[in-house]
Amino acid sequence: MEGSRPATPEAPPENLWSSILDSVSSSRSIPSKQVLLLGPSSSGKSVLASALLQKPVSEESKDETRSDFALGYDWADIRDDGDEDTLARLSVYTVPSDAIAYTTLIPHFLPPRASLPHTLVMIVLDWTRPWTFVDDLQTWLKWVEIWAKGDGSRDLDIVREENHERLQYHLQHYTEPSVDAVPATSNISSNTVLPLGPGTLTHNSAGVPIIIVCTKSDLIDEENDLVGASSSGMGGMVKGKGGEWEERTDGVMQVLRTICLKYGASLFYTTQQPNTLQVLRQYALHLLFIPPAPSLMASGSEGPAPLRNPFVFHHKPNTLDRDRIVVPAGWDSWGKISVLREGFEAKVWGEGWEADLDADVLESEDHSGAKKMYKMLVPDQGAKPPPLPPFNAPMAEQAFLAKHYDENAKKPDRDPRGAFRNPTDTAAAGIVGPLGSSSFNLPNVERALSEMEAGMGMASSLNASTTADGARRLPQRAPTGANVTTHVGRPPSSPTIGTSPSSTGGQTQHEVLQNFFQSLLSSRDRGGASTTAKSTSPKTNGSTSGTEDTS
């Protein structure tokens, strides 16, 4: 018994268990898919995101004044019909606008190398602003091309080529759903593959699945007053019977289908009705789970059976119902587009689209492209910003002052002191400044001069009385003395500088000024002398009386 036992025990099966666990986890792994919603604000992206995830629309998303995130995100599990198994995990990213501050965030969360085979791009257009369709499509489709290029590494180029082959294989092997119980033989099982039609998949080199969704299509006919009958501007692009607005809307759909054909994209019109949103969700899942293109095998050898798409799209294309258009990728062609309205040339519009892309690269505006033709089809009826006021070039400061100085110098009433002048006096300005000689011919000045002269005469009479009975006369002249004190104590006013000989005695203005200031000094000296006389007068009388008494 002991001889049959191995000499060394076996190692515990750690590697075996880890391999088993890895195989089970890989078999039970849930694939992750992403949908990137692009479009202008208030275009219905939140409604589409809720429909894709089968979640109710929140009250905040219904508010038009809400503030969007820089990059919105939400997710949900995709289950089978029996709601038993989880088939995939769907993530929805929402960008509020085409501002570079928002679009630069996307590569950080959706790097092209890892997410390109599992991402679907959905561009949202708003039917309440149909004149913006071509501009918005050019903006977003060019951004998708730039995002798919990434850093240009070799690994990314391989992923791009595989993705392009997968999309091309899907377009070439598209089969319209049939109502028969046994579907007809499709060209998927056929070995002969027809080439792509003209104008099909000429762009989108990375093979990104794209859906162009026109929301609010139930408002198409309600917005027919945007383009009146007077502004024809049809440019010969849309002709046919019926109303002009109906022709225009059909022309818009033809333009959109032509652009979708160039990128291998599909076109859907949606409303608030759940059935249109449900059809869109089914087709989005169908595109997300497109199987890869089978590898080319040697002749005579049978390759593996192609993978089956778990989400089969059963709805037939619809180009007649204006509020629920369904144009799957791979079904459309230039011939089907031209059938809708006669006179539409898909080739001309395709060349116009190429001209716009080349003009953006060359930064040229003098060209006739799809944008210009579309403006003729649907004129811009959006709100225009108010025009800017005309540019006001201010005058140089010194020039402004010189101009107004010359103007004011010519005005006779430029000096505010001229209001006090005598209007009958036209004499020139005096030597003392810009005031005229009549500046001092005011009543209060003349009265002050007369009172000053009277005070000077009274002061001289007081200095002359030195008799013994002066002390007796002084009380009798007290009223007059008080009046004199009033006149003497008041500072004399300026003299009247006039041109009349009677007022100055033929003296010049210089002499008048000199006499005026001299009178000020002499009146001050006389006032001091009179005060001395008053103080010494009682002493003199007293000494005299003492002498008389002594004698």
Describe this entry's structure for a reader.
The protein has 551 residues and is α/β, with parallel strands linked by helices. The protein is 44% helix and 8% strand. It has helices spanning 14-27, 45-53, 59-62, 100-103, 106-109, 112-115, 133-149, 154-172, 244-263, 274-288, 334-340, 346-362, 370-377, 397-409, 443-464, 470-476, 478-489, 501-504, 509-550, and strands spanning 32-38, 72-79, 86-94, 119-126, 210-215, 266-269, 326-327. The protein has a seven-stranded mixed β-sheet, sandwiched between helices. Helix 9 links the parallel strand 5 and strand 6. Helix 9 packs antiparallel against helix 11, helix 9 crosses helix 12 and helix 15 (443-464) packs parallel to helix 19. 25% of the residues are buried. Residues 181-190, 223-242, 427-440, 466-504 and 538-551 have low confidence and may be disordered.
Topology readout:
Elements: H1 14-27, E1 32-38, H2 45-53, H3 59-62, E2 72-79, E3 86-94, H4 100-103, H5 106-109, H6 112-115, E4 119-126, H7 133-149, H8 154-172, E5 210-215, H9 244-263, E6 266-269, H10 274-288, E7 326-327, H11 334-340, H12 346-362, H13 370-377, H14 397-409, H15 443-464, H16 470-476, H17 478-489, H18 501-504, H19 509-550
